[in-house]
Amino acid sequence: MSIKTSVAALREQAMEALKESTTKLEVASNLLDAGNREEAIRLKDEARAKRNVSVWLMSEANTLENAKLRDVRSQHQQTRYDVRHKSAA
Fold it and tell me: How confident is the model over 4-20, as pLDDT tens digits?
């Protein structure tokens, strides 16, 4: 699996976790309106956990993408260095 594919997969998982979090918060709000405070609090806590997973997955995707960009820049700089020194020889 390429890094680009991995980054996309991580971001997709992050978005899915965020959607689940949003849904849980909406249900928690409805439960709170209906007077079911205990269940609303439980769902709110689950939503927070899903949101944290989403943030972590997005952070992992960004870290992976940034590492790839650093590698590409490093290879580009090395190529430029090699070309300059070969043509000077």
Answer: 889 999 999 999 999 99
Range of the structural domain that residue 74 is part of: 3-88
User: What's the domain count of the chain?
Assistant: 1
Which two three-digit tokens encode residue 56? 């972590």
Q: What pTM, to 2 d.p., does this model score? A: 0.73
CA distance 75 to 6: 21
Neighbours of 40 (CB within 10 A): 19
Token pair 């260095």: residue:
81
Radius of gyration of the chain (CA): 22
Q: How far apart are CA 70 and CA 58, in angstroms?
A: 18
